[in-house]
Design goal:
homodimer; about 425 residues; alpha/beta; Aspartate Aminotransferase, domain 1; Aspartate Aminotransferase, domain 2; 2 domains; 13 helices; 13 strands
Chain lengths: ~425, ~425
Amino acid sequence: MAQYSDLSKEELISLKSELEKKYEEIKSLGLKLDMSRGKPNKAQLDLSNEVLDVFNSKSDVKSVDGTDTRNYGLLLGIDEARQLFAELMDVPMKNTVIFGTASLTIMYDYIAQCMMFGCGDEPWVKQGKIKFLCPAPGYDRHFSILEHFGIEMITVKMLDDGPDMDTIEELVKDSSVKGAFCVPKYSNPDGITFSDEVVRRFAALKPAAKDFRVIWDNAYIVHDINDTPDELLNIFDVAKEYGSEDMFIEVCSTSKISFAGAGVSALAASDKNVKDILARLTIQVISHDKMNQLRHARYFKNLDGIKAHMKKHAEILKPKFDAVTEGFSREFDGTGIAHWKKPNGGYFVSLYVMNGCAKRVGELCKDAGLTLTTVGATYPYGIDPDDSNIRIAPSFPDVDELEKAVELLAVCVKLAAVEKLLNN
Amino acid sequence: MAQYSDLSKEELISLKSELEKKYEEIKSLGLKLDMSRGKPNKAQLDLSNEVLDVFNSKSDVKSVDGTDTRNYGLLLGIDEARQLFAELMDVPMKNTVIFGTASLTIMYDYIAQCMMFGCGDEPWVKQGKIKFLCPAPGYDRHFSILEHFGIEMITVKMLDDGPDMDTIEELVKDSSVKGAFCVPKYSNPDGITFSDEVVRRFAALKPAAKDFRVIWDNAYIVHDINDTPDELLNIFDVAKEYGSEDMFIEVCSTSKISFAGAGVSALAASDKNVKDILARLTIQVISHDKMNQLRHARYFKNLDGIKAHMKKHAEILKPKFDAVTEGFSREFDGTGIAHWKKPNGGYFVSLYVMNGCAKRVGELCKDAGLTLTTVGATYPYGIDPDDSNIRIAPSFPDVDELEKAVELLAVCVKLAAVEKLLNN
């Protein structure tokens, strides 16, 4: 296929009319396609149905220490759930805390706690304008939390092996910079796993702010989709070398292991941070849902149990990811108008279209019945400086829907590119 | 039995030595009794075991609107759970929001939201010293939330039909007074239900602060223990007459209906407040545990289902409450050293011992193996101005344990009274 930038004006005009025709054809089909949300599909949810059979009205529902999980108690979680998450995050059990269904809530609450009560210095709310580093493209809900609390977001470019650490090392010299949000493995949306060097440079940071916190959102910690999974260094192992354990708050959940709507979430943190979090939790809740913890701990048993289960997820997800990335290759190879990465795990494919075209692509797709993640949402304040990134979530639709969606998306990406080139 | 205040010094000395002997005898038994925690007993938890059979791996787990409860979505809760709580709190479904396991968390989060973002005026955190009204004795965890956020607590006396409204009407003229915490039905610990007049005077309040909020913690909304239950006016019905609906945030949960450690909690509020809460929730969580909502909604079906279930709880609880109140009558009638109310529901019996004696009673009990709720905890800052109130939680121990506990407690109350009278 020809590089679009090499095409003459006449060729572009002809291509445009061809694409418009194709676009109108597809539009007339009245499709209703959705690649916007990173949510598991029915087959994935079915994989965990037996979690619901772990116990019933006749069963013993005591946790290993003898606590009746139906009653109050065990603020930090039942031992078997703490042990399971300790294995998953590869930290000691004493450094884990089990929460409710959503790691998003853990992150929200942690930021809220820092705002109201601080973490080693004055409450953030009393320190005037404070800032957070936001590797981008990134997870829109991280940015929403920061915006909600009025924390200024500084966009940091994502490179091929993680955030631009040169920039981060420079920015943390400003004591009003209080932290960063990261998805270190299979990042949302790029699917990038931080290299050992990036993890080390995070651990080695010497921020001017003594209350600097990195929210290490390990959402896709065991979410490989093929046989060449990425490996992420354990941040707490490395942080120990630098004495910077207090700087990291790691979270994860079973939302995309068991049930997105009824899973279990957990946090890993240093002794000091667990102590501070516990002081808040004591006021905030009597105990989280221990029966759901017990269901999960008894079903998955240990890390091997989780890993075996995740292989079944991978079998379902791989054809979907392939449909998207192979479709992209078929449509865009040689055109020079789009690039993307083929991730080894996670929930997204991150498509970069020609600069200045992403919003237009979003409009065209919407008008033809394809819902995409709001263009720009992957950047702080919803502003993609290049207007280029489009987050594709292949997990929910069927493969044939994905193929249709990719075909339509490709027409829109090409049409937007041609329009752009003709207007330049 | 003789009024202790009528006894001569000699009679008191003789009584003291008799009581000390009895105390040492009981102490030597090495008892381990606990009347400290308002937690359900095993038989109560067993009542709800069939909640666990509502569905299993083979079941349809779609909510009435077709949503797969295993997946993300429905931030406000599934319709059937909202409908159930709407019936329970007697409010329209649109005014309900379903949360996680604990209403305590709803209250904490609501206060946190007011602190950070305000509710109709500047954020509370930016308004300098703010204050809350605390009818007392009351629920220690309400006071802990206020203390945690640095909100000054003003103790308001509980009268026989609810808080002293004359005092409250006076105090709300101060614009730094931002709200009140209440347990309007079967109050913790007195078991008092607010009279119609008290509810009306709450609804009619005209606080100087335009961001005044009453947290209406309806924890014992259907928790009758006998056939002469109290009736509480519906606060939102009355508030409508005064246009003060925005002033009230009502919460309740199934913690003491189904499982204390794995129930469902809910909030009722005005349209405006639901909108404000939703704006925060959108940032804080993707959705609460919809499968647990579905379990509860399908099991209890409707308010009649809940009421029938609560009759079974009452059958278990009534003999326990009787053991305590009948024991108190047997031990204290005619002595003039203690008084209490026989509640028609809730989780506590509130014992008032001779002024200046409660702490001493707590010590004596502890040394002899009986754990009570920390004396003073029922008041703001843990300070009972009269040092008189002792909260008794009869739900967890067996009847024979309760009888032993009451016997020991009575010896301690009498001994403390005699010591006090001899020292005067």
